[in-house]
Amino acid sequence: MSVILETSSAAMRRNFWRGVWRVMKRKPSRLVGAALMLGFVFMGVFGPMFYPDPLPRDPGQITRPPSWEHWLGTDDQGRDVIALVVTGSRYVLLAALVTAVITVVVGTGIGLFSGFKRGRWDTVLMRLTDMKLTIPGLPLLLVLSTVWKFSSAVQMGLVLGLLSWGGVARAVRSQTLSLRERGFIEAARGLGLSTSHIVGKELLPSMAPYIAMNVLIAITGGVYSQVGLFFLGVLPYESNNWGQMLNTAVFRSGALTVPSALGFLLGPLLAILLLTLAIVLVVDAMDEIFNPRLREE
Amino acid sequence: MITGTGVVKTFKQRGKVLGAREVQALRGVDFAIPKGGAASFIGESGCGKTTLGRIIAGLETYDAGEIVIDDVAMSPLKPKRRQPHFRKIQMIHQDPYSALNPTRTIYQTLYAPLSLRAGQTGRSSSWIEERAAEVLTLVGLDPGTVMSRYPHQLSGGMRQRVVIARALTVDPEMLVADEAVSMIDVSLRLGILALLKDLRERLGVSVLFITHDVATARYIGDDGELYVIYRGQVVERGPVDTVIADPVHPYTQALLSAIPVLHGLEQPGEQPVMPLETLDDSQADAGCLFARRCPFRGERCTSERPLLHVTEGVPQEHACFYPERRNVIARPMSEV
Amino acid sequence: MAKQAPGVRIDGLTVVYKTPAGELPAVRDVTLTLEPGTITGIVGESGSGKSTLALSLLNAVQPPGRIAAGSVDIDGLGDVVALRGENLRKARGKHVGYVFQAAQNSLNPLKTVGKQLLDLGRSHGVDDLRGLVREAKELLGRMGLDGARVLDSHQHELSGGMRQRVGIMLALVLNAHLVVLDEPTTALDMITQANILKIVREVHAERGLTTLVITHDIGVVAEVADRLAVMYGGRLVEQGPTRQVLGAPRHPYTRGLIKAIPRLVGDIAEAQALPGRPPTLVTVPKEGCVFRERCPLRMDVCDTVDPAALADGPRVVACHAVNVKEHA
């Protein structure tokens, strides 16, 4: 008896991953999304290692359209656009990841606490959230950028994350409020189970698909805002990244009018598009992964 | 022994600053459920029976009156200190589908309260497994097949058994079953009722059964007491079979008359009581709460409110100025 | 009321649902006749296929389900299974009125009942909308409600019993003479239930309807129906005049079901739950009798041969054990 149950948690974990694989297999689009995402992770972690730093310049090939030698053309300094996209991905992806983690951790924490405690804490925290939600993000970022240079991706992610947890907090709170009325939460309280058990073991797993979905969506949000900031050119940059590429392509190389700079513009845009696509395709599977019924079927 | 005296609960309608309406859910209810005994609260939805059950299970507060659990009065205690007392009273919810966490297996569900218990009493983890298997066996499930399942892999009847097993993990003194069979397939309902009765007999757990279906109330034990509740007031109270066979309050009679008759198998009662229809019974009134719907109301009924009392020749308590026996229930053809 | 109560002949109806395990039958080879002007009650537990059967009357089975075989022949309408598109839409409401489960969620919470009534009228091309409203008020008045007030109300302002009456009104207002009530009293209190059942009986008689009541509660059928049909695992296992079936049930499932009803008098120990549990779409046996797993009369033949529904006067039973005895 005891042996069976001792191993059951390991077996359950195995079952979980087997279930995840089953869910992913159900639609080819999910596998495509997952593959793309893995590709981006690989690109962010190892990509820059494949290229010399700084990237070689080819003075004879300045702002060229796509060719066999340079698949997406070259930039205004004669560097390969693909190499730029790959080397620039680390900053963008790391910053986006930090943004997402902070958004979700802070948002979920505040939402859970607020919804579970209710009463005075709820009022205070939600007013705070409302206040935060009313602060327009972009102008604030512009102001912040005058004093802070965002030289590291972590700093960038930190600031973006602290600016964007409001929506998640509100949504998690309303989920918590509706879940706490459910029979199993009430039963847990009636049985005298601790608050940490109720929140950690009963509430959180029930919201897992929702939270996972928010992490993924927050990543795209993080990418968009930082690319936007760099594109506007309000931030000085030390290492190259996708936003800065767009900025240069549009404002310095005139990609909107000069066809030869089109590849330069398309490179980062394509990367953003593929990343968003990967996330959208994977988000679709979240509900099924975290719901035992949908996972097993 | 769990007793209540003069329990009052008022709900304020939230969100209205001006003219906030108050709803009197309970208007001074007395009850007493002995150790190992049985009681049933019956009445229509909104009569306050569920609120009372939740108060008894410690899931809701009360505004006035007193609840005493094993000689300890609850209201002088701080909420934190009440909890261990209320833990002796476990609620079985109506909906076995939402009462179990869909993301946790049956073993995980039972593990949480058992490990808490093991920690308090210094027992080993092997005790947890043994006890989990034991409570599942008690409710008539096979631990080997059920433990590693998720709730969605069980039928409604099995889920309700798991819910009862979970309640048993804390060795409760009383189970409060709120419409515990209404969402379960008809052919399986009696099994759950029989289980509750069986637990009473074997473990000495008392059972409080809350339902709008009087017939099911009998099945947790004929030694039980029936409380008929109307708009927050107990209007008739007595031994189950006495109240069912010889009801004296017109409301009880109406409830019993409304039970479908199995024509071909049963003969309907000769004096069925149909309550009058009213569209609005929200406003406060001085007289009997049932007067407006009562086909037999007298003059006294609209000016004075009858309280629960006994009269000569009537074995049960009732809240009616003009108690009268009426033959309302259907009887088997074979008996007539 | 020029129209007559229509008769309905369901013949060999099979409805299948597409699942990962292939197409599985929710209703299998059901033959049932609703005589004009009668109330028929279908009793079954969850997964018995009773609601699917009811939806078939309107040819309204939604994908992944489809009617795989059989016909539903309604007087004045023909075979509903063959109806398509606009003709089908018009038939619903005008010929067949459908009252949804206790009408809890079938009303639009954002619109008043009156507005929904007008929507219904317009979508069926009713010219005389005033007449429609008059008719609705009359029906509501007949059911003991203040028509004008109810038409002005939103769903949340009505109690469960009132919503159910509104549901019945909406099903009848276009002058349908075949009415299907799906779980008309589930989630209602006993007294409200008794009121609704009384209304169903009275309205049925006054308007000359053919009525089908779908429920899990034998008591409801016992109160209103002339004829009772019992479904289990997609099969119609027994049918006959209500009093006869209740008084002397033949199929072991019907017997068990009646025995499992808590009663007000008599020995508590006499009532007993059925062993086992009702089958789902996936667990229902592919061949042999659907009830054999829970059956006290199980024989060898039950494992392999699905018992045919044999008629004996007005009564029909599909059981090897019963039919063998009868014919021996």
From TrEMBL, chain A:
Any one GO cellular component localisation term in the record: plasma membrane
Transmembrane segments: 31-51, 91-116, 211-235, 255-283
Membrane topology: Multi-pass membrane protein
Residue span(s) of domain ABC transmembrane type-1: 89-283
One Pfam family recorded for the sequence: BPD_transp_1
Predominant subcellular localization, coarse grouping: membrane
GO terms (BP aspect): transmembrane transport
Name of the protein described by the UniProt record: ABC transporter permease
Organism for this UniProt entry: Nonomuraea turkmeniaca
Lineage, uppermost ranks: Bacteria, Bacillati, Actinomycetota, Actinomycetes, Streptosporangiales
Automatic annotation (TrEMBL), chain B:
Gene3D superfamilies: P-loop containing nucleotide triphosphate hydrolases
This protein's UniProt keywords: ATP-binding, Nucleotide-binding, Transport
Keyword Transport in record: yes
Pfam family, one: ABC_tran
Top-level taxon of origin: Bacteria
Start and end residues of each ABC transporter domain: 2-256
Keyword rRNA-binding in record: no
Coiled-coil intervals, chain numbering: none
Biological process annotations from GO: peptide transport
InterPro entries found in the cross-reference section: AAA+_ATPase (IPR003593), ABC_transporter-like_ATP-bd (IPR003439), ABC_transporter-like_CS (IPR017871), Oligopep_ABC_C (IPR013563), P-loop_NTPase (IPR027417)
PANTHER family linked to this entry: ABC-TYPE DIPEPTIDE/OLIGOPEPTIDE TRANSPORT SYSTEM, ATPASE COMPONENT, ABC-TYPE DIPEPTIDE_OLIGOPEPTIDE TRANSPORT SYSTEM, ATPASE COMPONENT
Protein name: ABC transporter ATP-binding protein
Organism of provenance: Nonomuraea turkmeniaca
